Amino acid sequence: MLLHQEDDDEVPCVQMQRINGLFSGKTPQLEKGAEMSSLRGYGKWAPDVEGVTLTWHDLSVYVPAEKEGGLFRKQSKPHKRLLNSVSGAVKPGTLVALMGSSGAGKSTLMNALAHRNPVGVVVDGDIRVNGRPIGPYMNNLCGYVPQEDLFVRDLTVKEHLTFMAWMRLDRRTSRFERRRHVLDLLSILGLSERADTRIGATGHEKVLSGGEKKRLAFASELLTDPPLLFCDEPTTGLDSFSAQKIVQMMGSMAAQGKTIVCTIHQPSSEMFSLFHELILLVDGRIAFMGTPNNAVTFFESLNYRCPENYNPADFFIHTLSVTPGDEERSRVAVKAICDQYTVSEHARAVDLLVHYERHLAESCEIPSDHHRAPRTKFKGPLLSTQFFWLAYRSFLCVLRDPAVQKLRIVQKLGIAIMAGLCYVGTQLDQRGIQAIQGALFIFVTENTFSPMYSVLALFPQEFPLFMREYKSGLYGVGVYYLSKLIAMLPGLVLEPVVFVVASYWLIGLRTTLYAILMTVFITVMTMNVSTACGCFFSTAFESPTFAMAYLVPFDFLLMATSGLFIKLSTIPVYIGWVRYVSWMMYSNEAMSIVQWQDVHNITCNSISKDAPCLREGSQVLRNYSFAEENLPFDILAMITLYTCFHVLGYFCLIKRAKLN
Ligand SMILES: Nc1ncnc2c1ncn2[C@@H]1O[C@H](COP(=O)(O)OP(=O)(O)OP(=O)(O)O)[C@@H](O)[C@H]1O
């Protein structure tokens, strides 16, 4: 059989048919024109795409090696190579098993092929889809089922898919079509009966089984009907029956023309027989690529005979593994297998296919910006749609956890009543001044500390899911951040209102409508600024523990400069600047102004003979270094701080997203 290529520019048809026959017996030979046109018309809006051929040539992947040396003497080591000049090709309608021992480079290869490389990873080589170099359009073209299932646990199966349908499908898809799509997928993947079941998560009430979650992960990817699908260890953690079902399902999808690459560990013989192609990776090199039957023959030709009734998958991995105690000899043997594969007819067949695809693409004169074509065809959801669905998802989560919400409201109510009871009977006299100022300070602290600390986990706990969805191009940082804020807003208004209403009259604060409304407004503002500060710390640090470590000293300074414990005019200059970022001070001053402005009838029953008698509200304010005319400035300062904290939080989230 003639397998080597004499001339890159001339690939005779007979030779190509032979290659295809050798490479995969079941793959239909696509017509030259048909194949190219299928890709040219591709986009999410064009689900009728026929299929894709994925090729990669001379592909190497590097990561920067760790730096050595002390704090002031860092030396860069050369990059570490994870993949070493690998080439391969997968045709439409093929289910490929990507196998190798742990650390062989399977995930690295799959990430490179799917154009989803982690930050810092350098990819060198040529990866093409139907002859086109891959690019950001891969987000639209391919589906990626990750190994670890990450879902919003409080959603039901149907809600999750509906969310995905709005976030992933073309904006021109009608509501009816989306619903039909979701229902069809539920039915195809056997999830119809679980449609209204909550997904659940590890450590919580588990409501979907591992296999069902995996099928849901497939459903999320299949919504866009991608012709190319990557699956990272889809059977890991599943029982043999569920694992078999998943592989069978992938087989049926491949039978419909999809190209599916799947990493897999220890498949049973029965499961292994469902794969059309096999790629064996070892130490970043390809030890074999071709059909499982050809793999057996290839290993036999190297005197590695798979015993009868032995699972070939186990045999290959065993042969390619490094035996403890005999590392040197095993490494030499494994290297010899890779070297033999490189000069084998199987490798040459792959090379020919790779060159053929490239030749085909070049001869079709695709415009230089061809890689943008799929993007221009697909019209993603509008920002407003993304915002609505993200906010809706967050609201659902809040509503689905009523115990936490109820607890927070009950807690607020309890503290408000306790605080109120402490100040019952407050008179407008000299003792009353201290009582009122103390009560106002409780208004400030109670609406500062607990909300600020309660949001510290908000972003870190959802970060893995956010990163996955962000990296797959589902939405941007801004719309995500904004949706989180909006979802929190009802609670951030309700809680302070409950607090003020429950304690205001018990304490005996001013009962003018203006004073009540302004106190409610300032308390709501206080809680929102505190939460904004918490959000900033939540995005700036990778864990709530770190955030807390920095937030506690900051809080101390805020409280010390709030105006109750020390006269603001006497604070030393070197620490005095903190008052300008202390919303506790602004809030305290604003609430004090509301309570004391235009008060002229304070009874003079001085606590001690030496203490001055404060008859006027303005005197009370002056006593705390507050000034009546500062009220608009205090409110403006709180609004500014609220905005600044959120802007900082947003930029920190962008930075974290880019670094991960
Ligand atoms: N970002 C990275 N920085 C440094 N080393 C990395 C990085 N990513 C992967 N590696 C290393 O590259 C090698 C291949 O990793 P990869 O995750 O691709 O292996 P794998 O075959 O998928 O393994 P497993 O089956 O255990 O998931 C491993 O030794 C891993 O430690």
UniProtKB/TrEMBL annotation:
Annotated localization: Membrane
SUPFAM superfamilies linked: P-loop containing nucleoside triphosphate hydrolases
Recorded family membership: Belongs to the ABC transporter superfamily. ABCG family. Eye pigment precursor importer (TC 3.A.1.204) subfamily.
InterPro entries: AAA+_ATPase, ABC2_TM, ABC_transporter-like_ATP-bd, ABC_transporter-like_CS, ABCG_dom, ABCG_transporters, P-loop_NTPase
PANTHER family given in the database record: ABC TRANSPORTER G FAMILY MEMBER 28, PROTEIN SCARLET
Organism from which the protein derives: Cloeon dipterum
SMART domains for this protein: AAA (SM00382)
Residues covered by the ABC transporter domain: 66-308
Top-level taxon of origin: Eukaryota
Name recorded for this polypeptide: ABC transporter domain-containing protein
